[in-house]
Design goal:
homodimer; mainly alpha; 3-stranded antiparallel beta sheet; 5 helices; 3 strands; 45% helix; globular; DNA-binding
DNA sequence: ACTAATAGGCACTTTTAGGTAACTAGCTAT
DNA sequence: ATAGCTAGTTACCTAAAAGTGCCTATTAGT
């Protein structure tokens, strides 16, 4: 959205602009952990989001081909959203970001920080993605 | 900033909020490609950024320990910013995001999209980070 | 006949973020 | 004496984004 007045037209900035904003990552996360999900279910899981923002995010991510929208014309209608191949690719990297974020913002095992960091055996996971994310 | 009214308190959302917003990624990129850089030089390289936003971003990233600030009390003073270990870790992942963004938003080799996607042999780089980013 | 459910759309208001411009300190050079 | 350099800070204004509430279609159930 509003890619016209964009600060930097390079691909990664486009992508970051897509991912930026409240709920977007959380939404992707819900879809990656729960599989294809209907609109109402999404709204229920993402507690606090407004329908307006949820639809905005869904529309945008659909336009970026990160997720797909499946409309079933039953009564009442069923609309299901799920990750596309692009979406799957994305959550792989998001996993790594999450691994990093976990190390940074969670679990300071001994002390917050000291003058020398000789005891920092925390950050040796080598982006191994061994920490399966559980807390979004 | 404004982590209090945060939508989702999980680590990766915190991190995304840090990275979100105009210029932030670009700033990290400049620091990663140019090494430690002074304030004025950053402002010159990131064409179009206001001093206000630049200082905001620098302060925030410094607080997140993604970059450091070195103040040399000469006259006129020299302030140099550079990536910390965290910052280095981050740009590694950013590289992958960039790789992905390049594939998605650059170079559609044959056709934009067709009815069936049997010809989508585009996305097989396996997050190899072989594409060194050049265009931020 | 009327209510309920799903998946939103639309208009209005509020909040937030970014831009702009003016100002600062302390010393140097002209 | 005065202007200029760096690295910002501060106040003010505007534009974009988010929140809120009300509205729709269609049919099944009571």
């Amino acid at each position: 959205m509003s890619r016209s007045r964009h600060s930097c037209p390079c691909p990664v900035s486009i992508l970051m602009e897509v991912l930026s904003g409240p709920w977007t990552m959380y939404l992707l996360w819900v879809l990656s952990t729960n599989g294809p999900t209907r609109f109402g279910e999404l709204k229920r899981r993402i507690e606090g989001i407004s329908t307006k923002v949820l639809t905005e995010r869904l529309r945008m991510l659909e336009q970026e081909e990160i997720l797909y929208r499946h409309y079933e014309p039953t009564v009442p209608p069923q609309v299901t959203y799920g990750l596309t191949d692009r979406g799957q690719e994305l959550v792989v990297i998001l996993d790594q970001l999450n691994d990093l974020a976990q190390r940074w913002y969670l679990s300071p095992p001994v002390e917050p920080l000291a003058a020398d960091d000789s005891a920092s055996q925390i950050g040796n996971s080598e982006t191994g993605m061994d920490v399966v994310v559980a807390s979004l």
